[in-house]
Amino acid sequence: MRLWRWILVLLVAAVAAALAWHWLAADPGSVQIRLRDTLIETSVVVALAALLLVWLVLGLGWRLLRWPLRAWGRASDRRGRERLAGGMAAFAEGDYLKAERELAKAAQRETLRLPALLLLARAAHERGADARASEVLGELGDSGERVGAALRARFLVDNGQPREALELLKDKDKAAQLSLRGRQLLVETALALGEPHTALEALPPLVRSQSLTAEAQAQLEQRTLAAALAAAPDLATLNALWHRTSRHQRRQVELIDAFARRSAGLGQMLAAMDEIEAAQRHQWSDRLAAAWGELGPAEAPARLQRAEQWLGHAPNSAPLLLTLARLQLQLMQIERAEESVQRALALAATPAGWELLGEVRRAVGDDAGAANAYANALHAARAEPLLAVAALAPRGALDTRPIAFEERSEHGVPRLPGGTHA
After folding, report:
1. Which residue blocks in 193-317 are alpha helix, DSSP H?
2. Could you read off the pLDDT of 112-155 as tens digits, one per residue?
3. Which end of the chain has a smaller Cβ tally under 10 Å, C or N?
């Protein structure tokens, strides 16, 4: 295609030259140049050719004069790139002092100044020279203000000053001077400081940019929404946040858990129960089974009845057994609560299980058993040997073995426990 284009250009030039020659042949014109007593007379064609020749000679002379300067500039650029590369390598190796020296030299080149100063500030921070890092960030100027603010905030977080970092990022966000990296840091810092609504407001531009991978973006959205739901100050805000989520997000266990717990805490128990029940019908979740028993005392009989129905679907779920025990304890069904929690501990001796056993024993006045159970909660968390907890009353050994039952996949295919197809 390029060859045909050149052929076309040459043809057009040839036609134009032929027409010009035909036009000038009839009357070549006359050009006179008089300087004092000197008179130069020639035709238009010769004058134009002379001007073109002079222009070519002057251009060639200018190039020859600039050649040493351009060669020196190229050599300087090459040395700058080498120093930048050397500084990056030294930074990666942890030789921060050498990195600072190389990057300081590279920053003298205008084209390399911004990346060199940014990495120089990071090297100074990693070396513990925070004053030097702050000084370098101050040299960025307006062109590096956006990215420099994010880096300054990161240094504040690393130095144990997340509140100051958050205020800095908020100010930059209000002034529309926040980079995407700074926005991500704003979201994460706000979540860490318990300000999920600040994180939620800062999240949409980051999502629209698609600067994160789909998985990382989904996780950040999930964390932010879950924190915002858990911190909703009233039912109106909670319901608005819940309806703001997508259909896919409303099926995520973490978000359902956060919504249900906060909804129950604000007195909207039926809505919490509906969401958990709908999710459990769609796909079983031990986390939601545990949340079912931690929604508070309201609707305890109905929740216990539903949990007993779930037991037929997941008889070996330790979180579900703990939920049964918790609800049975609320209804003062002590013996049943003891049996449920003992079965749960046989399946998984978790700190939560031992703590619940302590509550059961305390409810019947068994202070010694409660003390040992509470101690076991700490021991289990630390992976230490457990203490023996005597039975409530003499009786036959409690059968805590897992119940054998047939598991099937979503396609109805039988499978072994753990998800392997038979």
Report:
1. 196-209, 214-230, 235-244, 253-265, 269-282, 286-292, 300-311
2. 888 999 999 999 999 999 899 999 988 887 778 888 899 999 99
3. N
3-class DSSP assignment, residue 17: helix
CATH number of the domain bearing residue 185: 1.25.40
Helix (H, G, I), strand (E, B) or coil at 177: coil
- Taking the C-alpha atoms of residue 201 and residue 224, their distance in angstroms, rounded to an integer, is 10
On the CB side of 223, CA atoms within 13 Å amount to 17
Domain containing 237 equals 232-283
Is the per-residue pLDDT at 40 higher than 50?
yes
At 335-384, the pLDDT tens digits run 999 999 999 999 999 999 999 999 999 999 999 999 999 999 999 999 99
38 secondary structure, DSSP code: E
Whole-model pTM?
0.75
Q: How many domains in the chain?
A: 3
- CA-CA distance, 217 to 203, in Å (whole number)? 10
Structure-block tokens of residue 220: 């950040």
Q: What is the mean pLDDT of residues 258-286?
A: 95
Spatial contact of 254 and 222, defined as CB atoms under 8 Å apart: yes
Q: Can you say how many angstroms the Cα of residue 422 is from the centroid of all Cα atoms in its chain?
A: 40
Alpha-helix runs per DSSP H in 94-176 = 96-106, 113-126, 130-138, 145-158, 162-174
